[in-house]
From TrEMBL, chain A:
Designated gene of the protein: etfA_2
Family label: Belongs to the ETF alpha-subunit/FixB family.
Protein name: Electron transfer flavoprotein subunit alpha
The species this protein was found in: wastewater metagenome
GO biological process: fatty acid beta-oxidation using acyl-CoA dehydrogenase
Entry keyword Manganese: no
Listed InterPro entries: DHS-like_NAD/FAD-binding_dom, ETF_a/b_N, ETF_a/FixB, ETF_alpha_N, ETF_asu_C, ETF_asu_C_CS, Rossmann-like_a/b/a_fold
From TrEMBL, chain C:
Database matches in InterPro entries: ETF_a/b_N, ETF_b, ETF_beta_N, Rossmann-like_a/b/a_fold
Family: Belongs to the ETF beta-subunit/FixA family.
Domain Electron transfer flavoprotein alpha/beta-subunit N-terminal, chain residue ranges per copy: 23-211
Gene: etfB_2
Organism annotation: wastewater metagenome
GO cellular component: mitochondrion
CDD domains found in the cross-reference section: ETF_beta
Keywords on record: Electron transport, Transport
GO molecular-function terms, A-Z: electron transfer activity
Protein's UniProt name: Electron transfer flavoprotein subunit beta
UniProt GO BP: carboxylic acid catabolic process
Amino acid sequence: MSILLIAEHDGRTLGEASRRAASAARQLGEGYDVLVIGGPGCVGVADAAAGLDGAVQVLLCEDDAYADDLAEPVAERIATLVRDGGYDGVVAAGTSTGKDVMPRVAGLLDVAMVSDAVAVENGRTFIRPIYAGNALARVRCEDVVRVVTVRTSAFDSVAEADTAAPCERLSAGDHPPLSRFVDESLSAGDGPDLANARVVISGGRGLGGAEAFDMLRELAAELGAAVGASRAAVDAGYIANDCQVGQTGKIVAPELYLAVGISGAIQHLAGMKDSRVIAAINRDEEAPIFQVADYALVGDLFEAVPQLLDALRTRQ
Amino acid sequence: MTAYFAPVRELRFVIEELIGLDRVAALPGLEEATPDVVEAVLEEAARLAGEVWSPLNRSGDEAGCRLDETGVHAPAGFREAYQAFVEGGWNGIAADPDWGGQGLPELLACATQEVWNSANMALALCPLLTAGAVLALERHGSDSLKQRFLAPLVSGEWPGTMNLTEPQAGSDLSAINTRAVPEGDHYRITGQKLFITWGDHDMTENIVHLVLARTPDAEAGNRGISMFLVPHRFVDDAGRPGERNDVRCVALEHKLGIHASPTCLLSFGDDGGAVGYLVGEPGRGLHQMFTMMNEARHKVGVQAVGVCERAYQQARDYARERVQGRRPGGSRPAAIIHHPDVRRMLMTMRAGTEAMRALGMLAAAEMDVARRAPDNGDAAAAERRVALLTPLIKGTATELGHELTSLGVQVHGGMGYVEETGAAQYLRDARITTIYEGTTGIQAQDFTLRRVLRDGGETLSAVLDEAEADAAALAERDALAVEGKALRAALDGLRRSTVHLLEHGGEAALAGATPYLMQAGFVLGGWQMGRAAVLADRALEADTPERAFYEAKRATAVFYMRHFLPRADAFGHGVTDDNGATLFLAEEQF
Amino acid sequence: MKVLVTAKRVVDHNVRVRVRPDGSGVDTASVKMSMNPFDEIAVEAAVRLREAGQADEVVVVSIGEKAVTDVIRTALALGADRGIHVDTDAELQPPAVSRALAELAVRETPDLILMGKQAIDDDSNQTAQMLAGRLGWGQGTFACGIEPADGEVIVAREVDGGTRRVALRLPAVVTADLRLNEPRYVKLPDIMKAKRKPLEAMSLADLGVAGDAGLTLLGVSEPPGREPGVRVADAAELAARLRDEAQVI
């Protein structure tokens, strides 16, 4: 079976997400090819991709048409490659790009798709969360070509290969001008992005106001963490709504999730319960957040957070 | 405080199956009340109530209202929540389309009233009183008053208030001495009115006060009282509110509950007299006020049901979460909902709430018939039933409201006594419902003397005939034969109490009035639960896909028959076997 | 501009779904159903375009059994002009849904198709992109802003780490993300008006579309529960355990 992995990159570096998606690709078949598609200047990404353990070859397709990650040309080129190359599996990380492009690829190929796989049972059978992670579906892909995005937090990164895979250049396709890039504004914050952060510190209504979030930001800076919030805190206007973690906000699964002053409404739990380690600070020992927490600190967060900060600083 | 989810499926069951939407939708003007409309209306009310009104319930209770030199300020968020209600067209749900209402059945309106009251009882009081003002103005107001005030009252843009009580005139309104002196096309009103709910606030641009006052040459007592409409702010020819009339809130009461609802001491005429307009005929004020009073009594009963539902949801959610002790025979720690006594409390809350809800909705459906039945005889019969059921619901549902919200606290254990959980608020809020719009004692007197004894028990007897047929139908169901017999026995007991009162009358009737009211409320609640059990049993027999719902319905009815009907019997003994005990002591022996 | 907006009927987002004991799926019998929240945002966006004079007709479509007309009525009460119910008892997957919608798009010739970014039941997040691919139209997924311009629509998209704006040539497919707008509450009079708005019914076969079998559901299970946690005495212990035991900081 030949598998094609779509590399996630920003034109310069290969995303960590791709290294994790590569694990899934390996589980789908013996080896996999990596497609690096983007604007001119992606050679560095291709070099990195060549070092992914299990990569058979790297295909580099550089063209202005692909510089802006527009789904229409990218998906069309991928679909053509899959048909021409006789691939029977296409895998990408479930990033915002993967989620944008891959279903379009499936549509062009007229096949079904598996979104957000959290486990690969065999070449055709996958586990994926449904109902915001409140249930897991086991699905078998019956189509000739399997199109899959994976939830990267569920897979480990592949190791670095001993020898680099060979790289081949592909020509660009001829794509109708369906869309064009206008501009973008990426969050200026120094800290990592909420969706990809290794550590997330979230605050809830227990913080009582916008000022208390500064305390969490300080702690986040110390840990290299992103700051998130419960819906209650967002609704109360303590913090911007793009920080919301939960069923209707962002779904995160960091290594460590620290919930501060969050009671743990179901809709919030749905957004973070797959985190590897969960710690919670709350005054109410009955708070539902403690039912999912690995470490529970019952107490006043206004005392505990500064103490935690002290403890972290003195040990380093 | 847990989130509130309106019991839409249950409300639809009561409307569509138990009371019968067909019967109501067959009335002239109500053709649009089809099941899909009922469902959509309930879903949307549930949404606004759950997402906007309910989150303010606790914060409003904590913050309370504030009075300063500019007037009364409602708690944060209330203005927006009320405006969303007005803009959504909810205030005029059952009002006449000619005045901007939606013309939907009272039956459906009653269900939505419960939902608003569950979400936020303090805020729901505002439209509760407006509804009464709409009715009084519609029935008794002159065309010119209607033209100026009815549409904004129907929409809720300008809420209405009821100004009856004065320091010396509480349950006995004949003692009112607020003055109304004629001056051109209007009157000048002077005096103080006590306990005026939502008497002043900043949620809307204007408020319409309906005020009872005496004209200078009026006779003493009830017949000297007239009704006046006093706008809080003067209204120009284009209908825009402007300068404030000579009425202001001079004090806010500090109350046990409903903290977010301002209870005002209103002073009229500190600067020479508030301008007021006569509503209806001079000297008929008290009579006219009772039009709105009766409506309001029914609504207070429904309000109690609403608070009970909310308290039940809170207690149930807590009982599912709180882990304490072990299941009987179990070894692992268990959520307290697994403890039989907690089950008993939850079942009591659930069964009592369902029974009172059904009675309240039954009365609402009778209001629709009374208002719209083409046949005068049908309308008059329905009117008599409304009059019979109104004090019954007001009295019984509110007394149960107190009991069931108290059980809600009990389920929480120590945490229930702590304000944080929100359980205590429902108990404090519900406490007023047995008092305002006429205490339980007043309801009992009205029910016993005016609704039963005055027509020799005829209206009640007709209801009991119907209930007996339903009890027989219940007894015919294999699984419910015992309950059918129990219901029949309870109906017989109510007849015995009625006969006893008809034979004895006088002081004995007054001493037995409240037990009699409670007996009647519990028994007729059982009548509706019995009917629900039959419907549920049939649905289960027909292999309904909603098995869980109907099983719960039937089981709750069974619980009611076994736990509430014996209490009805006990109340009955209070009526028939008092033997002078209540009135035996002389005053000085107390 | 004519807007076609889609609405799926799903288990209400407040319902805690339970997996059936036999693992064949989740229990949806007598569970409250509602319009998919992201679709509601899409409907709101469409209605706002109409109110701003940028769209002159909003058509709402839902696919499924008779009961889905509930969500169509809700969309009509929110302000859509007419509804289309594509009747089928089959549980369709995104490929078949996108085929049916593509066929409808050919018939209705909308300038813009607005959809929720994903349905909260299967969480697939596929149908709109598949549809756009089939039609050969531009796509603007995860929209947090929509501005129609001359022959185009400028879509602000939520992407990892920020927002990015793209201009799509019309006709195009756009999917709504959470922050695109806050849907209004339905007004009581509009519920009554919605009853009188046209609602056309057609079968899936009328559109020449069959069901699909690309994915076979083998079973549904509960997600694994977490091991019970430990209670720590103070912040110092928490820091120590996170560092030494869990090794996450």
